[in-house]
Amino acid sequence: MKLKTQLILAAFAVSIAAPLSVMAANQESKNQGYLVAAPDSAIVTSGYGLCWHSSAWESSQKYENCDPSNKPVAVAPAPIVVAALPAAKPVPQKISFSGDALFAFDKAELKPEGKVMLDDLANQLNGATYDNIIATGHTDRFGSNQYNQNLSERRAETVKNYLIGKNVQAARIDTAGKGETQPVTLADACQGAKSAKVLACLQPDRRVDVEMIGTKSVAAL
Q1: pLDDT digits (tens, 9 = 90+) for 39-71
Q2: Is the peptide bond between 39 and the residue preceding it cis, with omega within 30 degrees of 0?
Q3: Phi, psi (degrees; rounded to nearest 5) at 203
Q4: Model confidence pTM above 0.90
Q5: Phi, psi angles (nearest 5°) of residue 97
Q6: Following DSSP, what letter does each residue of 160-193 receive, concatenated?
Q7: How many other CB atoms are there within 10 angstroms of residue 139's CB atom?
Q8: In the predicted model, what is the mean pLDDT of residues 78-91?
Q9: Which of 140, 161, 168, 183 is least surrounded by Cβ atoms within 10 Å, i.e. has the fewest?
Q10: Where does the signal sequence lie (predicted)?
């Protein structure tokens, strides 16, 4: 009976040792090519989980925990492209002078008070940055189209010549005449034949617009 018990225990011990031997062999085989620690041939890793290859390491011996197949690849961030801001466009500024303030009715010669107004404008232009100036003359509806066109052009030229005499560069001043084609009064306003009342109503149409296009504002008069 005692002998039988010893045989059974011996067989059981062999049955346990055999799998352990196979596991150790598999572990040792799996860890070939890496730095291992005795006695169980466990792979030595750093504090960051990195493994060290031995001189015998080959790619066929790759251990997934040390050399994962899907190792993340660092991708450089795409450069940030900052679009250049478009250059600021010069902002036009327009000053409208009453034609009656600059000229006597139906005339193209400057009145004394009109010269004072243009003197003030010339002083402001001398301290401003601008590309060009456009002086545009306008008339009311009384008179023929051709007469009003000529009158508007003469008044614009008078303003230009006066500004040139005040040291405003001639090359930067353009003139235009629009005659009666661009009224600012409403179409149904100022109705009736020529009279003092109707002429007073049409006064806003008799004007010279001086438009500056540049980068520095000119104070309104």
Answers
A1: 777 777 766 667 767 777 677 777 767 777 655
A2: yes
A3: -50, -40
A4: no
A5: -105, 130
A6: HHHHHTTT--GGGEEEEE-TTSS--S-TTSS-SS
A7: 27
A8: 68
A9: 161
A10: 1-24
CA dist 41 and 28 (Å) reads 6
Q: How far is C-alpha 106 from the geometric centre of its chain's CA atoms? A: 50
- For 139-150, the pLDDT digits (tens) are 999 999 999 999
pLDDT in tens, 88-130: 665 678 888 998 999 988 899 999 999 999 999 998 888 777 8
The domain segmentation of the chain, as residue ranges, is 2-61, 91-214
* DSSP sequence for 38-85: TTTTEEPB-TTS-B-B-TT--GGG--TTTS-TT-----PPPPPP-PPP
Burial of 208 (0-12, 13-18, 19+ CB in 10 A): buried
| Token representation of residue 78 | 């795409």
The SS3 assignment for 19 reads helix
C-alpha dihedral over 22, 25, 29, 35, to 10 degrees? 140
Cβ-contact 40, 24 below 8 angstroms: yes
Give DSSP secondary structure letters for 75-101.
-PPPPPP-PPPPPPPPEEEEEEEEHHH
Fold (CATH) for 91-214: 60s Ribosomal Protein L30; Chain: A; (3.30.1330)
Residue 69, class by beta-carbon neighbours within 10 Å (0-12 exposed, 13-18 middle, 19+ buried)?
exposed
Please report the pLDDT score of residue 219 as a whole number: 53
